[in-house]
Sequence to fold (288 residues):
Amino acid sequence: MLVSAKDMLQKAKAGKYAVGQFNINNLEWTKAILLTAQELKSPVILGVSEGAGKYMTGYKTVVGMVNGMMEELNITVPVALHLDHGSYEGCLKCIEAGFSSIMFDGSHYPIEENVAKTTELVKIVSEKGMSLEAEVGSIGGEEDGVIGKGECADPNECKAIADLGVTMLAAGIGNIHGKYPDNWEGLSFETLDAVQQLTGDMPLVLHGGTGIPADMIKKAISLGVAKINVNTECQLAFAEATRKYIEEGKDQQGKGFDPRKLLAPGFEAIKATVKEKMELFGSIGKAE
Ligand code: 13P
Fold:
């Protein structure tokens, strides 16, 4: 059964580790992430962007696939199904469809509007026992065609949003979705420290987990980050393994063209990436 992310993230914050949010795109992604979490006894959050939801034909399909898979694979670790960077309308659709967690990304609105919309969603979500992530200060890079600059959040605005009763808070600290450019200045730990000072026990969320050096990840966790989002890194690993299979001509040998064979190396590559991240984030064994 899907669970809210509240419990797992409060435990992570108190225990100084982070739970990974891994974005899903299809059956292979979902199966790879769920099996790895179960094998490593780690809690996990499955992220679904609005674009990925549309790709998978809609949120109801996603809920049906994830629930069915959890039952058939006997997944017993805590799993949250979470809308990533949702619009207000997208949040309402996912609540209706049976997600257990949502993110409302109001970071591009003036703070008053972000507060007003987040307040409404806090009300709806708490009645349903779901978790809600809010965002202050946009995350840089490209996400579903929207390019953000990667600004640093205003800690006072973070406190204003945290006080509304959200479950977890994403604060921009110079992080970017996708690969980091060579001239990236790194995470602003000064901003993160200031946000944590004002928001106390609130589990903080680090987006753009792909390509952040291990020492920065560890420092971010020590300063209150309890949820780390990873998307691009699984995509790169999948693409590389699939390219290798085809370049080696394996799809042309025997029944190598069978999708169950063709997609297997990419599937294994996602599993390996998820495992590596769970080790780095410290979430292994935390579901026992
Ligand atoms: P990356 O694609 O950079 O890993 O970022 C994922 C993310 O933050 C999803 O919200």
Summary: The chain is about 50% helix and 15% strand.
